[in-house]
Structures are given as C-alpha cells and as structure tokens.
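quick one before i forget lol
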Amino acid sequence: MKQLAPLFILLVCICTVPATSQLHSLDENHPCLEKTFPVLIHLTVDSTDRQQFLGDMQVTDMMNKVSSFFEPICMAFEACEINVIENYTFHNIVDPLRLEELKILFGKPRRLNVYILGDIPNASCGVSTTYGINEKGGEYIFLETEDCEDELAGQLAHHLGHYFGLQDTYHGSTLEIVNDANCAVVADSICDTPSDPFGKYRDVGDYEDVQPGLIEMIEFVQDCEFIHENLDPNGNYYQPDVGNIMSAYPCRCGFTNEQFRKMSSNYLLSSHKPY
C-alpha cells in the first residue's frame, strides 16, 4: 500500500516559504544536486498602457519562492536577464503558433526561457514540455496571468516539475484507486501522492474526463479544502493533497519525497542538459 511520507501528512495552502523549507527537511535522503539554473524571463506588455506585467523586484521575489520549493534537492533558479517584449500583440495569444514565434524571436540557448503572457488558448495556466530537460528545445515555459487562479511562483514551479519529468497528480484517463492498488502504473505513477480525481466526473457509474476549460474548480476545492464527493470504483472517498505542486488546485506549497527523487534522477540521467 502507498505510504504517505511525513512531508504531506498535513499539506495546506497557507505554507510560507520558510515553512515549506522546514517541511521538506524531514527527509535527509534526497540527493543534493548543487545546481543553479539560469532563467531568462520574457515579459510582455498589455495593449492599454504598454506596461510590463512584473517589475524587477517582483521577478526576484518570484524566483526566490520558486527556488525554495526545490531547496531540498539543492536546486535553485536565478533570473539572469529580463527581456521586455514591446510588441503587445504577444500578450494575449490567439494562435498557438505564436508561441513558436516567441521562441524563434526571443529565445536564447543555454538557459531556461520563461515567458509570462496574458492569455494562452487551451493552456490551463501554462505550457511546458514534460521531461524537457532531456529534449533539445524543451527549455521553454509559457505562463499565463489571465483566467488562472494560481500565483505565478506556484505556476512556474508546477511547469518546472513537468520540465524535470513529473506528470500531473491526476494525469491520464485511467482513474487511480484510493487504496493505491494501481498507483505505480496510472496517473503520475508515484505512490506517495494520494489519488486525485480532478477533472473526472462520474455519470451513471462511469468516470469520464472533462476538458480542462469546462472544469469548475469550485466543484473540487473551496478554501483549499477538498469537497468533491464522488467515490472511487470501490466506494472510497478521495482525499488528494491539494497543496501538491503537481496538482491542479490553487493551493500549491510542496513536492513529495518521491517527486523529489524522480526529478533528481531525471536530471542526472538526462543526456541533454543545456546548462
């Protein structure tokens, strides 16, 4: 049976940066990678006053908080440059092909390129490449600031999790069972993240996936308390960690021990490593 690490016995949305660091110090078996990743932050301007979305100090604060999430494996992220994209038509993306245009026009090699945009169609708070650390051209992350409940630091940490090979806790169409019988082969294939039914609705005994844009967050969580009452196929109630960074809930404050180990392993095994 899946064993919950001490890390997530009580994971709540009110974690502060120091509390997150203290929480993750409970397990001393994490590898220490001693790696700081250079990040190029691309900021767009809106069409009204042509102002960039974040100031330099806000970018620094965001990167510090993101780094705190990865501190248990001695991994940090530093904004080495801020690029302001003056063409406001890039702020709200209409055609997804414009993301490729952003890469070509403004992307730079040997660093993580993070674009902070307004709206991205069908993106569910951003776009990234799963296990991008092992793929040439995978070092691009696009975040959106409109119609997204997540704060930017949590959103960026989530997509960095994808970059290092983590899946969403609710990944895939096969439902993870609460008693953990299939935890190693479905969803995120990690067994210390409790089963998460986000986006799956039950209709006449069967579960089905719903497109992200049609999911009502309020049906799953309120004030960072999980309230969804559908049962798993065995009749058990779900109780996911709404604070897990790889969940969809806007309460993110940490990774689990197995998630840390997987990210560390994927980084060490990567044949690409563009930094």
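fyi Confidence is low (pLDDT under 50) at residues 1-26.
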